[in-house]
Amino acid sequence: MKVSVIGGGVVGLCVATVLAERGLNVTLYERAEAPGPAACSWWAGGMLAPWCEGESAEEPVVRLGREAITWWSERVGGVVLNGSLVVATPRDAADLRRFARMTECHEAVDAERIAALEPDLEGRFRRGLFFAGEGHLDPRRALADLVARLQGLGAELRFGTEVSPQDAPGDKVIDCRGLGARDDLPELRGVKGEMLVLHAPDISLSRPVRLLHPRIPLYVVPRGEGVFMVGATMIESGERWRITARSMMELLGAAYTLNPAFAEAEILETGVDARPAFPDNLPRLLREGRILRANGTYRHGYLLAPALAQQAAALLLEPETEPEFFHGHNRQRRSA
Amino acid sequence: MPVFYGEIVESPLLLGTSLYPSPAIMAEAVRASACDIVTVSLRRESGSARTGQDFWGFIRDLGVRVLPNTAGCHSVKEAVTTAKMAREVFGTPWIKLEVINDAETLAPDVFGLVEAARILTDEGFQVFPYCTEDLGVAARLIEAGCEVLMPWGAPIGSARGLNNVYGLRSLRAHFPDVPLIVDAGLGLPSHAAAAMELGYDAVLLNTAVAKASDPVAMADAFARAVEAGRIGFEAGAMEPRDMAAPSTPVLGKAFLE
What residues 102-161 of chain A have any CB closer than 8 A to a CB of chain B? Predict the structure, then answer.
């Protein structure tokens, strides 16, 4: 079977990988020249934190996200399994209690334990939660490693090539264009996220740290060599071209609260994009003739793309199956 | 039934649309709450009028009346601009007016509030001001053209319930004919019931439902609480007293071996 995969973000690359691993003849089309800033997975935090996400996400995110940790560890470099830490300022102690109530597999930690885990947070927080089973990866390295792996598996990679699902060759087409498929998926919406990349060589963290905030979970993920990713806002808007002063202040405020030395950090990058999401914030597989649309991973691209890819492969190879994210046949487009 | 600017509404519950785990859960909670009015914050959800269309589409599809708000505005100018944007997006003259004074308590800036209410009323808006229970401020807001008042129960998002029951009761007594909505600070269904038992016309809340472990079930609980509180108020409560008053006579009752 010849399969075209359209879209070179985390979903497209995972789908292509799973299909190529199962011996299918795969061609991947991506309009950008390489995995890069056009895909929202380029801007992701890369936290492999299914239990933390359980605070607001539905059950499949926790269950399938757990499996994703193994999936990534076996395929790409730079996966770190040091757990993750959740802290709150004393004024937001109620948010920490709520977070503990809504999540599983954590250990309550005190000031001493926090200092032992993260010496650079010593004296900053008296209470927190440690999720020992979680991990993180560097999204850009993970995407590049999947590309190399696909090349090794003999898949054809056509970067710099724009093809519509209708016109793509092959017996089957898997549309993984994210928000690019918006005109074909009337229920898809964008949820804007903004992030920063900071260089703060004086600070060292071993794991992602989340700072609870009454509205959005802000986090700092270490990328190594003094580089940190700070994310991410969550705004109901499809806008993907500007970071506002308000968001920048919230992100920097979170970093500064973790360790005031972040005030001296160099701002290397600011990033903005919109995550593709369906109304229940869970991904969907939709069939439309020979086209299968895989979309809507929301803020859980790295946690859910492996499972979504496996389910897409199952639909392709055993058309009678009905995997969890299969949503039947795509509805008619909204009339103009 | 509450009447706001001549519009009769069925439910005394107004529900906010922020902070839910997903739009789908938000929509389900709105249905479970049986509310007729939802509030929506423009600034928080989108940042500019062009970009929030998908989310606003969800709100419009709920089939309930929308009360846009100026959440997060710290000045009169900001609040007036946001109100105008809201009118454009939702096509309603209604506006929940928030002018925040203090970033820590999110207490209203009552001076700015009165000024903004006057400006917006002159421009044809029907203003729902988020205010304190201060009687003088209430009088000024009514002078400025407000036909509804929304005193806080407690600071926004604090879940503390009715901090100043005396003040709220006094406001109710001073303005018996002005529709009053307790806005902000409610955490439990019993808080909402207590506000309704004071004779308030409605309550407005968001976080208590959105951040519950099960938002849909909590929305249902609030719907029942406001109903119970309203019926309780209308039924006329007994007066509290210091001594016990047995409901059956103790003197001369039959002695059973």
Answer: 102
